[in-house]
Write a structure and sequence with these properties.
Helix content: 25-40%
Number of domains: 1
Number of helices: 7
Strand content: 25-35%
CATH superfamily: HUPs
CATH architecture: 3-Layer(aba) Sandwich
Shape: globular
Order of helices and strands: EEEHEHEHHEHEEEEHEH
Strand order of the largest sheet: 9-8-7-10-6-1-4-5-11
Amino acid sequence: MSLRVLVGCKRVIDYAVKIRVRPDKLGVVSDGVKHSMNPFDEIAVEEAVRLKEKKIAKEVIALSCGPTQAQETIRTALAMGADRGIHVEVPLKEMEHLQPIHVSKILASLAKKENIDLIVVGKQAIDDDTNATAQMTAALLDWPQATYASKIEKKDGTLEVTREVDGGLETITVQLPAVISADLRLNEPRYATLPNIMKAKKKKIAKMKPADVGVDTSSHFEVVEVRDPPQREAGVKVEDIDTLVAKLKELGRV
């Protein structure tokens, strides 16, 4: 059985950029700042493409929600080997209030529409670190889930997934269709070659709005203030253990 795979790829501020709070303290500076695909989503795309190369998957569809620039992120996924893209247009101003539940509903709706067998997303995005999209998507679809995947193997009609958990590694078997979230050690994403970047320009990207898949992205909260974390205070050097314990008691740490 060849799988149809839907993979999420979020456009985020590049990991190497130093984040700055906006003067109005209602968000972070994103204008004129380098953006790229969320690193965990890049791993998800790579894994989906590898499944296709192993003949386990027959089609890989890359999905991104966001402004016009999100198409660049989809093109990156297409250059890595995805077959086609879906761009769910969300204006830049509305992106600040787009929550994982909105994205999960979009993923779930498109999974039904496209007859998807497997959804693969990064375990979390580096901008909001929510780590909730995969779990909520699985709940909405009532599909099995395998989060924090560091290895995926196809068995007879099932997937055997090795998960990274607090106590080490856990191996589970999930029936298909399923939702998987990619952890850091699942693979090392490839660099898109120039010929594949050129080919990606000819691949199709379907455009739609959240309403087209029956999803209301209205905000349910208001940002009151965004601020930098407090500066870390300098440490204090102590001569011996007794002084250390005394200092810790003085600070109420022990």
